[in-house]
Design a protein that fits this description.
Layout (H helix, E strand, L loop, with lengths): L15 E13 L3 E8 L2 E8 L6 H9 L5 E10 L8 E12 L16 H6 L1 H4 L3 H23 L3 E2 L5 E2 L11 E3 L4 E4 L4 H9 L4 E9 L12 E10 L4 H31 L12 E3 H12 L13 H15 L3 E5 L12 E2 L2 E2 L1 E6 L2 E9 L3 H10 L7 H4 L9 E7 H9 L4 H4 L12
Parallel strand pairs: 3-5, 6-10, 12-13
Antiparallel strand pairs: 1-2, 1-4, 2-3, 4-5, 7-9, 8-9, 10-11, 11-18, 13-16, 14-15, 16-17, 17-18
């Protein structure tokens, strides 16, 4: 038997149906009982008349039911303009309890005063909140639009290993594990394998997959286990071409979300999705430093010179918003000391950028060094030799110029809907102090 969803009910008006769902609300009045049922697509009302003799057992059953119990109702779907939920209601002939819910530890529809840890401990309940349901519908739409866009642009989807043999990908810490009596590590990103695909002649690849960072950070935007949308493409002529592609990708994805969910997002989150215009503002890091000092008396901390930090990202957004009325900005010309060894350099300056959105970095993108001898020398400068030996092998036998970037799906969703942290955005958050449920 096909499950009927709320958003399909109009197709069954004046018909006998079987409908299963969670109980959202029970209103037990003197002469009538109203049961509001919900599924992932909406809500519908079932109405039980107490005066009808055949309903006697059903009335007693409804009186014993609890919110969030799951029931199966057999009855007739009828039109009723007085009903606010779609102008229709179900008149039950029978109600079957599929699962009776115990008293809830908190009201997931009103979490004011409920700690985030309590909510995460009961995430399976917290996710029943209508805002959370919408959040993952929005995320699905966002990711699907990105996937469709890159496939339309001739990208091949790959699936790279998450258990790797070396811990050399970046400066971030890695999770170490025992792999049949030898050391192995969880991958921080598919970076090396994306580049291997370029050397394999795949030209354009993407992957949507988990990534792992053993960073002991408890900030609002970091997680130890997250989902990343990564891509790599060959025969790029310059960094502008790569930035231009990311602009198109994001504009396409945000447009898809706005078209499908803007009304619901406005109602539940109070957010108006702004579709950015091209080109996104672009600034050199040194110029940004000067403007932030002039406008906001900001000076970069000594240890962060040549790079960005959280405070400078927030101020960069503020500056761009005030000067250009834009939510995005590309920052270029970082110090080679602060960038990965595989970034190609032009006169010693890495050919890469960070993309800032609403005061938070969402992408580090770069043109990669594809010349074997230069790449080997840059790895040596960073103290990397044996650890990247397998990676350097990719470039010995011909490697096209290429570049790419990655986007954290959870962080994108957080910024899009302006939630307080990744703890609210991720289906199940993982951080230094959270490993359950």
């Amino acid at each position: 038997m096909k499950k009927i969803y709320v958003n399909e009910l109009e197709n069954y008006l004046e018909q006998e149906i079987t409908f299963s769902a969670f109980i959202d609300v029970i209103r037990d009045k003197k002469w009538v009982q109203f049961i509001i049922l919900k599924d992932s697509t909406g809500k519908v009302q079932a109405t039980v008349e107490k005066s009808v003799e055949e309903n006697k057992e059903m009335v007693e059953l409804v009186s014993s039911l609890t919110k969030d119990s799951v029931v199966e109702i057999e009855g007739k779907l009828v039109k009723n303009d007085a009903v606010k939920l779609g102008g229709m209601e179900i008149i039950p002939k029978s109600i079957k309890v599929l699962s009776k819910a115990e008293e809830l530890p908190f009201d997931y529809n009103n979490t004011e005063g409920v700690s985030i840890d309590t909510r995460l401990n009961h995430r399976f309940l917290d996710l029943r909140n209508q805002k959370n349901l919408l959040m993952f519908k929005v995320q699905t739409c966002l990711v699907n639009a990105m996937r469709e866009f890159v496939i339309k642009n001739n990208f091949i989807e790959i699936h790279t290993p998450k258990i790797i043999g070396t811990a050399s990908e970046s400066g971030s810490e890695v999770f170490k594990l025992d792999y049949f009596n030898r050391d192995a590590y969880l991958a921080q990103s598919p970076q090396f394998y994306k580049q291997m695909a370029m050397c394999s002649g795949f030209d354009r690849v993407f992957e949507i997959a988990p990534a792992f960072r053993a960073e002991n950070s408890n900030s609002y935007r970091h997680a130890t286990d997250f989902t990343s949308f990564d891509l790599e493409m060959s025969y790029l002529e310059n960094l502008d071409e790569l930035m231009d592609f990311e602009e198109d990708l994001l504009i396409n994805a945000l447009s898809a979300v706005k078209e499908k969910y803007q009304e619901e997002i406005k109602e539940l989150f109070g957010i108006e999705i702004n579709i950015p215009t091209k080109p996104f503002p672009r600034m050199k890091l040194e110029d940004l430093y000067k403007e932030l000092e002039k406008e906001y008396n900001f000076k970069m901390d000594f240890e962060d010179i040549g790079d960005m930090n959280a405070e400078s990202e927030k101020l960069a957004y503020k500056y761009i918003k005030e000067k250009y009325g834009h939510e995005f900005v590309f920052i270029t010309d970082f110090s080679a000391k602060k960038r990965a060894f595989y970034h190609k350099r032009n006169s010693g300056i890495p050919m890469g950028a960070d993309l800032i959105w609403k005061g938070c970095e969402i992408t580090t993108l770069a043109i990669r060094e594809n010349r074997y001898e230069i790449l080997k020398q840059q790895a040596k400068e960073k103290g990397l030799t044996e650890d990247v030996k397998f990676y350097l092998e990719f470039f010995k036998y011909g490697a096209p110029p290429h570049g790419g970037f990655g986007l954290g799906i959870d962080r994108l969703t957080m910024l899009l809907l302006e939630t307080s942290s990744l703890k609210e955005t991720m289906f199940l958050f993982r951080g230094p102090n959270r490993l359950e449920p």
